[in-house]
Amino acid sequence: MAQTDMDSGEDGGGGGEPEVIAKTSVLGGFTESTEIRALISSLPVVHENIVTLESAIERFLVIMDRYQEQPHLLDPHLEWMLNLLLELIRSEQSPPLLVHLGFKFLYIISKVRGYKIFMQLFPHEVADVQPVLDLLCRQDPRDPETWETRYMLLLWLSMTCLIPFDLSRLDGHLTSDPSQTREPIMDRILAIAKSYLMVTDKSRDAASVLVSKFVTRPDVKLKRLGDFLDWSLTTISQASDQTMGGTVILDGALQSLAQLFKHGKRDDFLQYAPVVLQCLDQCHVAESSQATLRKLGVKLVQRLGLTFLKPRLAKWRYQRGSRSLAANLSLSQSGSTVQAVSPDMETQSQEEDYDIPEEVENVIEQLLGGLKDKETIVRWSAAKGIGRVTGRLPRELADEVVGSVLDCFSFQETDNAWHGGCLALAELGRRGLLVPSRLPDVVPLILKALVYDEKRGACSVGSNVRDAACYVCWAFARAYEPTELKPFVTQIACALVITAVFDRNINCRRAASVSDHSVSVSGTFPYGIDIVVAADYFAVGNLNNCYLSISVYIASFPEYTRPMIDHLVAMKINHWDGVIRQLATKALHNLTPQAPDYMATTVMPQLLPIALGIDLHSRHGAILASAEISHALYKLANQNNRYFTVHLPVSDQYVVRPQQIFVVVVVSCLCRGFGGELMRPAVCSLIENMSLSKMPFKDDPEAAVSALAALCEQYYQPQPGMADPQMQEVLVSQYIAGLKSTEVLTRCGSALALGSLPRFMIHGKLHQILSGLQQSCSQREVCFTEARRDAAKAMAQVCVTSGVSAQGGSDSVVCEGNVSAVYGALLDCMTDYTLDSRGDVGAWVREAAMTSLMEVTLCVVGTAPQLLSPDLVNGMMCSLAQQSAEKIDRYRAHAGSVFVRLLHSNNPAVPHIPHREELLAIFPTEGAEGLNWNAPSQAFPHITQLLRLPQYQYHTLLGLTVSVGGLTESTVRFSSQSLFDHLMLIQQDAAALGQFSETLLHVFRDNLRNDRYTHTHTHTLHQFCVDLLSLCKEEIKKSKDTQKLRSAIAEDHSQPGVISLSFSLQIRKTTASQVYEMLLTYDDVIDPDVMDDVMTSLSDTNWSVESGDRNSISVRAHPRSLS
């Protein structure tokens, strides 16, 4: 579906997928509450049966996953779901499996709604502490099946830790007897938290939450905070990220520290912050190879930075006066504005008059380094840290931080630095920390980031940079007053529109579309609402629709026309992706009516020198663009009766004209060698468009270097239906000579060129053309396989173009004098089984021949069916039947579809098809369309029915022989089964069975020494006769082909003397094993004395020894007895 939508380019929504997204985003409420209540209530019953249990879990997951995007809809229902599940968990009658199932359901709910919201609903009375703690102590941390239980219990324990009582009061039950010691609850909880910080599952995350809630309690921090920090720093110092276990330990310790410094009071943790920062520096967490550890390091560093700085909001920050959309629109229409809030300078001076600790510089340096990290999660965390820390700095220091962030936007930096810089700017702008005076420095960098695309090898990087730049634009539109952005809004609008319409990446197009919406509501975006409606989130999902439809609508607004054209010329016609280059040239064709003079006077002079440049992609795109624009200008001139002059670039060496591009390209050999595959179609497109545009260059003698149908129609037809004799002779002779070239690509191009000639160019030359193509088809060299394929295609094209006439001349139409030669050449192509390192490349020729046979046959039948003799039709249908029974799915399917198409053709019907009535019974008209020829399970049961028809039996069996002995399991299984079913049907019919056996031997006899059939034939039937054994022995005589010998062992193991002394150790061992098995099977028909002698020799002989003393004399001494 996606491919269809992309190809159509007309559906603004991109097909069905966006509709699904739209529907899942507009849920009105939790409509499945009744079903969820029933599911939870049924858990005590369904948990006993694995099938019903899995069904209940799957249904619960499906329902909950629907609310991933709108989890707030679950809020009114969370409490009763929690209570129902806790009731099951707390029940003494609940078995362990049911308890774990309840916690699993709780985890699914928390995953959708978020643990921070869901954990607040857990009961947290004093009476809950001990049961939760005891239940958690009974869990096995290494059990992979119950991690959800441990995760939810840790979150529950985190809530129970918030009780406003000293935990020592819960230890009142402890006895004073020293012989009966019990650990206090405080120590038990801390020990559990530490132990779960080192586990490998998600419980580690919940343990860090437990630490942040528990250690920050007033009673615990007095007694255990210092010890816990010492333990954490010691753990970090001793662990190594080079091992899996060390990575897990570091992850848990860093998570717990980050949570502590986030939730703890600054006064409590300020004294420890320098020590923690020093430990991180010494352990080089920022240089770890693990992205998760680097992210946690950045997260912890920013929390340390916030601890060093006083928790105050910067008074110097920019504060937008109103964030209301309705207010902004109304004020925009009335012409008034809400003024931004400006801080009092005296108050600002007082607020900034405090010392900044030295460690803050280290923190900011590490955060700036994190912006350049190679992983997105690290850069995103560093960007948020930059925003948070900068918000507590004085204005001068904050401006220095902004300057350091802007240093990331250097073309000496990588795409990672650009991405991190964009994220940081977005955070700074969103928080009001990027003052308007900085916008002239920032906006040009963002405009560059919106088109950032750096080529790396065969592709490019930068989509994440462009996506982040769209996020910056979105943040700026929400953070600043429209008056602040007014000087830059046109530039930003053009850049966002270009990204939304022309970006290759769908995420970037959609991000730009959303940013367009945010900027447009400011009221200063030119034609903002119209553009947002046309290029909405779903419309830009279809690339073809963006380039060919939406771009034309947006370009109708003058502010966007030239920027869009300039972007296509500068960035897209030289893009590394060929699809983008072609779409860009088509877009230029469509945009030409919007600015025809600009195209003629500015764009075309830029393109013509590029078309002859050294860069392959630029050259390819420029040629295509020149062709499309020229054709568009011609059509526009015809409509308006106005002509446009292209201002040609003049150099000291030459003046380039559009109609001379392909001449210079060919003369410069730019269509050969590396890149020729791109340049040749581009030049052909240029010729076609120049021809359609009626470009005046008939007097150019070099214009005969190439030809297409449009070129011939326009320039080589002095009178309708008549060719220029001189040009006809030149072209036909040139391409027929090309069919004999030593270069395979030249042969291919010549064949396809002959096939594309119009009828008046073929008239009088048909015999010469067909002879050349037939000769090209008959050359079976491996290196010319592609040339034979294209010659087979061209033969059908030439026949169809020239037409059919029973009484016509053989030099002008297909007639009685040449139809046999055409069919003979195509049927000969059906026997092409050429092999090379790429595999069965002859299949390309066979496929082309099948298609050509169908096209020629339908053409002949439609005009002069009497030209088709019974022999021609019989040979064609038998060859198609053979191909329909072979092993390669694609070509079997193609042959089958052609076979059925010819069989069912009735306008008029193909004459002389053997056994037509029987074939129609096997392949009825109503069922043929639903037959999947690609599936062996469907194809072979139909194909083997052709074995009942004498005319088709030989060729069908020839194809089945290859399939039965193939390598693909499904093909071998279904072809063998179908063949066996056929044998079962005829086993009582002696005549039919004899005919089948004779045909099988005939196939084998005709293909002796043909490895394609020999390797597979010996697998076809293990029931053999004397003639078959004789053929097998003759086949393997003096053979050194181990594969052939292995295949023959199954048929020849009763004559061990033939193979037992083979040159191959493996062949000797396999033969001895087969003989031994045969003797055990047929021990009742062999002389006991001979049996004992041979069995002893087979058992005692070491068949793997190279020396000549192997004792195989006994085996060779009794061949007749064994026979």
Question: Could you characterize the architecture of this molecule?
Answer:
- The chain is mainly alpha-helical.
- The chain contains 59 helices and four strands.
- The strands form two sheets. A two-stranded antiparallel ribbon has the order 1-2. Strands 3-4 form a two-stranded antiparallel sheet.
- Strand 3 and strand 4 (839-840) form a beta hairpin.
- The longest helix has 25 residues, at 616-640.
- It is globular and about 110 Å long.
Summary of the model, kept short:
The chain is an all-alpha fold and 1123 residues long. Helices cover 65% and strands 1% of the residues.
Q: Which terms would index this structure?
A:
4 strands, 1123 residues, two-stranded antiparallel ribbon, cytoskeleton
Blueprint (SSEs and pairs):
Layout: H1 2-8, H2 16-24, H3 33-41, H4 43-46, H5 50-65, H6 75-90, H7 96-113, H8 115-118, H9 126-137, H10 147-160, H11 185-196, H12 203-214, H13 218-238, H14 244-263, H15 266-269, H16 273-283, H17 291-308, H18 325-334, H19 345-351, H20 359-370, H21 376-390, H22 395-406, H23 415-430, H24 439-450, E1 454-456, E2 459-461, H25 463-479, H26 482-485, H27 489-502, H28 506-520, H29 528-534, H30 543-555, H31 558-572, H32 578-591, H33 596-610, H34 616-640, H35 661-667, H36 676-692, H37 709-715, H38 725-738, H39 744-756, H40 759-762, H41 766-778, H42 785-802, H43 819-829, E3 835-836, E4 839-840, H44 842-863, H45 870-884, H46 889-904, H47 916-922, H48 925-928, H49 936-943, H50 950-964, H51 969-986, H52 990-1006, H53 1011-1020, H54 1026-1036, H55 1042-1052, H56 1065-1081, H57 1088-1100, H58 1113-1117, H59 1119-1122
Helix pairs in contact: 3-6, 5-7, 6-7, 7-10, 9-10, 9-11, 10-12, 11-12, 12-14, 13-14, 13-16, 14-17, 16-17, 17-20, 17-21, 20-21, 21-23, 23-25, 24-25, 25-28, 27-28, 27-30, 27-31, 28-29, 30-32, 31-32, 32-34, 33-34, 34-36, 36-37, 38-39, 39-42, 41-42, 41-43, 42-44, 43-44, 43-45, 44-46, 45-46, 45-50, ...
Subcellular location: Cell junction, Adherens junction; Cell junction, Tight junction; Cytoplasm, Cytoskeleton, Microtubule organizing center, Centrosome; Lateral cell membrane
Keywords: Cell junction, Cell membrane, Chaperone, Cytoplasm, Cytoskeleton, Membrane, Repeat, Tight junction
GO molecular function, one term: beta-tubulin binding
